[in-house]
Amino acid sequence: MKNILTLFVLLLTSWSRATPADEPTRQMARGIFKELIETNTTDSAGSVTNAANEMAKRLMDAGFPATDVVVVGDDMRKMNMVARYRGTGKKKPILWINHLDVVEARREDWSLDPFVLTEKDGYFYGRGTEDIKQGAALLVTTFIRFKKEGYKPDRDIILALTAGEEDGKSNGVEWLLKNRRDLIDAEFVLNPDAGSFELDKGTHVLVGLQASEKLYADFALEVHNKGGHSSQPTPDNAIYQLAAGLSRLARYKFPFELNEVTRGYFERQGPLTAGQDGADMKAILQSPPSEEAIVRLSSSPFYNSRYRTTCVATRLEAGHANNALPGYAKAIVNCRILPGHTALEVRDQLVAVVSDPGISVSQLDISSGIASMAPNPPSPLTPDVVAPLEKVVGQMWPGLPVVPFMDAGASDGAITRGFGMRTYGVVGVFIDINDDRSHGRDERLPVESFYEGIEFFYRFNKALTAGKP
C-alpha cells in the first residue's frame, strides 16, 4: 500500500510540475514563432502590419469570427491586431498586450541570420526570440487551444499585438487607448514584456511579478556662447562649462525611496540572498533605513536602480572645427524615474544639480507614449492576479518564490498604468540572468523555456478566468 501511495505521489508531482503540451500543439507554437521571427518588423525596413495580419489569419483559421479579430491603427506599416476570446461575461475582461516590433538587427553583426528562426545548441536564435515575439506566439497558441477545446472562461480574454514600443513611433497601445478603448477596456492588463522569470545556470530561481516600472525621459543639457579663435582661448569654453555640470551630475545620487512593490521585492529577496547583500536588504527595510546598507547595495547597478531615480549622460557633441573655440556643447542625459514622480520634477532637480544658469536643461520631445506619460503609480498586488500566478508556479515549479518586481526599464505597461489600468508584467518564459541578449547580437531563448511557456500561458489564463472546459 505504501508503495502504491508513493507511486501516486510521484505521478501527481510529475504531472503538476509541467504537463507538456502534446506534439501537435508544440509544433503549432513553433510554427507561429517561426512565422513571427521571419517577418521583419523593424522600423527601418519591416512591417508590423504584416505580422498583425498573419496572426489574425491564424486565429480566424482556427474559428474566431472576423468581428472578434481586427487589425486597426493610423500607420499602414504599423497596424495593431486585437482579438477577443469570448467568455460568459460574469466578470470584466482581462487584456494581454504584446508588441510585435523589434529593434534593428544587421546581418553582418550576427553569426547567423537574425530574421530566420534557428534552433541550435538548445536555443532558438533570431531577432525577437526574447523581446518579445515568443510572448505573441505563446498567447496566440493559447487562444487557439482554448478554441479547439471549447473552453468557456468567466470573462473575455483580449489580446492586443501592437506596434511602436521599441521606437516610440505610432505606439499601438497608446493609439488604442485614445482611439479604440472599446476594443481593449479591461479590469486589468498583463504584459509578457515585463517582470522576470529568472534562470541561473539552468536552475529556476524566482518568478518576478512586475507591478511597477520607471518612467523614461531624455533631457538635453546645452551651453551656447560666441566661440572664437582657438589661438586665443577664453575662460567661457562651452565644453569645459558643460563638462563641469556633467561632473556634478555624475557625483549626484537621487534620494533612496521604496514603494509597495520594491519593498515587497526586498522583503522576499532578502531571506533568499546569502551574505552581506541579504543582510543589507533586510537593513534597508528598517525605519529609518541603514545608510551603510544603502551605500553597499548601491554599488550594484541592479539594486541601485531599484530604489532611486537614475540619470546618466549617454551622448555628447560640441564645437564645429578643430581650430575654433566651441560655440556650443550639448549632452543627452537619459533618466529612469521612480513611479510617483514626473519628468518635470526631475528636470528641476537636474537644473539644481548642474548649478549653472549657463547650462540649459530641456526635456526632449519624443513622440512616444512612454516618454510623455504621466506618472504611472505601482499597481496593487491584488489576489485576482497574485493567487492564480502562485497557484500555477506552485504546480509547475514547486517551491519557486513569486516576488514583487519593479523594472528599471520601461515598457508599454507604463502607458496602460498612465491611463488608469492596473498592469502586471508576467514574462512566462525563463531567461538566464547572465545571458540577456534582448536588443543585442545573437538574441536567443532557451528551447525548453519556450516549450514550458506553452503550458504556463495555458494554465495561467485558465487560472485567471476560472472557466469551464
Question: Could you describe the 3D structure shown?
Answer:
- The chain is of the alpha/beta class and 469 residues long.
- The chain has two domains: 302 residues, Zn peptidases (Aminopeptidase, 3-Layer(aba) Sandwich); 101 residues, Alpha-Beta Plaits, CATH 3.30.70.
- Helix content is 38%, strand content 21%.
- It contains 16 helices and 19 strands.
- The chain has a six-stranded mixed β-sheet. A four-stranded mixed β-sheet has the order 16-9-8-18. A four-stranded antiparallel β-sheet has the order 12-14-10-15.
- Strand 1 and strand 2 form a beta hairpin.
- Helix 8 packs antiparallel against helix 9.
- The N terminus is likely disordered.
SSE layout:
Blueprint: H1 2-18, H2 23-37, H3 48-61, E1 69-72, E2 80-85, E3 94-99, E4 118-120, E5 123-125, H4 133-149, E6 157-162, H5 172-179, H6 181-184, E7 188-191, E8 196-200, E9 203-213, E10 215-224, E11 228-229, H7 238-251, H8 260-272, H9 275-283, H10 291-297, H11 301-307, E12 310-318, E13 324-325, E14 328-337, H12 343-354, E15 360-363, H13 369-372, H14 383-396, E16 402-407, H15 413-418, E17 423-425, E18 431-432, E19 444-446, H16 447-465
